[in-house]
Amino acid sequence: MPDRAGSARTLVAGAVSIPSPSGEEAEVAAFLTGWMAAHGFEAHVDAAGNAVGERGEGPLTVMLLGHIDTVPGDIPVRVEGDVLHGRGSVDAKGSFCAFVAAVAALPQEALAGARFVCVGATEEEAPSSRGARHVLGRDRPDLVLIGEPSGWAGLTLGYKGRLVVRVRVRKDNFHTAGEGTSAADDLTEAWFRVRGWAAGEGGEGVFDAVQATIQDLRAGSDGLAQVAEGTFGLRLPPRVSPGAAEEAIRGLLVDLPGPGSATLTFTGHEPAVRHPRDNALTRALRVAIRAQGGTPVFKVKTGTSDMNVVARAWPVPTVAYGPGDSALDHTPHEHLDLREYDRAVAVLTQALTRLAAGPPRP
Fold it and tell me: Do residues 253 and 308 lie in contact, with contact meaning Cβ atoms separated by under 8 Å?
């Protein structure tokens, strides 16, 4: 294996070996900025805890925005053959490390043609998206790569939107042999109404549908009052904004179970996003994927990512890219094929070199 590939593998194995659930990214950010500083980057940890590294001085600015936090869950970190096991190997330290390794490998002519900004963002797995929101204060880049697993030959153009609905029902306690509904009954009715609304929105295919899921349910009584609480998650297509969904849900539940007895809270308002498939960025990536023996595949995802956060502020060509199988995200079986990781680094290195060779494009 070439030494450059070995260094890239050491980078990702080191990052994955450092636990970094959302809000606890300081150690991995220090590791990543240290690696970047040792490989020709100007690197620092910013005010949001992001690991930031920059190379190049050209007129074109390419933002490579990944995330370095993970969901909770301890998966023993180990390398078996060409497979790296560990939390974050796929979602999404593998993608960010591929960005960093590719930028570290760029030739001088590419660094003369463009400025490459790598940001390992904090709290992407949390509702805050703290790291991505912080970098919105930077100057608008010309091109954006989002670090998320797409498979080394995949290009993700869009993500669904999100809305989180919390319903709390409180009622005076009463004997179960009496008439009326319990707080849990009313919460269940709320869920049936939300689910029915989502199903009634239609849509062709899962990306264009409204998806509703129960995230949490609980109910109890202290002998004087009953309280039932539920959290429902909505995944929204581009045609349904979070604001429109909130308005619809408020209308559905306004009489549940009677005026003033149910409290609704809405969070996580993220509009869906879908970018065009033909621009300078996608063309460079398609050429590089084919050069590595792959067939480019365009994808859209039913989850959310930092692409949702930056899309409106940065209306420029944007693609999510990274090695790994996204079906392994958040699972106890998360692992990354390092041969695929090597290919992703090669694809990125070639694509970024190609982009830097041309004039800045919108």
Answer: no
Task: Pick the closest to residue 148 from 79, 103, 98, 84 (CA basis).
Answer: 98
CA distance 362 to 354: 16
d(CA 306, CA 310): 6
Confidence of residue 328 (pLDDT cuts 50, 70, 90): very high
**Which residues are tagged catalytic?**
69, 124
Phi, psi torsion values for 297, nearest 5 degrees: -130, 125
- Give this prediction's pTM: 0.90
Domains of the chain with CATH codes: 3-159+273-357 (3.40.630.10), 161-270 (3.30.70.360)
Residue with tokens 């904090």: 122
Return the beta strands (E) in the chain as ranges: 42-45, 51-55, 60-67, 78-80, 83-85, 114-121, 143-147, 154-159, 161-172, 211-221, 225-236, 262-270, 273-274, 297-301, 318-321, 335-337
Model confidence pLDDT, tens digit, residues 299-326: 999 999 999 999 999 999 999 999 999 9
Longest dimension (CA), the chain: 81
In this structure, the number of other CB atoms found within 10 A of the CB of residue 241 comes to: 16
